[in-house]
Design brief:
By secondary structure, this protein is mostly beta strands. Helices cover 7% and strands 39% of the residues. Keywords: Bacterial flagellum biogenesis, Cell projection, Cilium, Flagellum, Periplasm, Signal.
């Protein structure tokens, strides 16, 4: 029995790594800043590098103290459903700009469905970093 106690006393304890947690309750759709993060010690999996979380948007509400995981975050949405945005169709030297109503949310680089307001046709478009839409050929 003494050997067991001595063995347990001398064996190293599992190391706890610092992970990032929410410094306050973050509602769904919040774009994360450095002020929203704090480091905690814990054995639960989560992000440890602030650059992996800052600038991303929460998918769901994250309560204060909960470790941040990549699955809880997404690229920020630039386009919201049912908004009107410029739609650009470009092929060679031809460039047509019109307006379209968005039919879903979208982040930069995502393909979403939009409705051309002039023709009422529904087409696919890529969300550009400036918030405009580029029609897919």
């Amino acid at each position: 029995m003494r050997w067991l106690f001595l063995l347990l006393a001398l064996s190293p304890l599992p190391a706890q790594a610092a992970v990032l947690a929410a410094a306050r309750t973050l509602p769904a759709g919040t774009v994360i800043t450095a002020a929203d993060l704090r480091a905690i010690d814990g054995d639960r999996p989560g992000l440890s590098d602030p650059s992996e979380a800052i600038g991303l948007q929460t998918r769901i509400t994250i309560h204060e103290g909960r470790p941040l995981q990549a699955s809880l975050l997404q690229a920020p949405k630039l386009i919201s459903r049912n908004q009107i945005h410029p739609l650009v169709f470009q092929r060679g030297a031809l460039r047509i700009v019109t307006e379209a109503r968005t039919l879903s949310d979208g982040a930069a680089g995502e393909v979403i469905r939009v409705m051309n307001l002039e023709s009422r046709a529904t087409i696919s478009a890529t969300v550009q970093p400036d918030g405009s839409l580029l029609a897919i050929k």
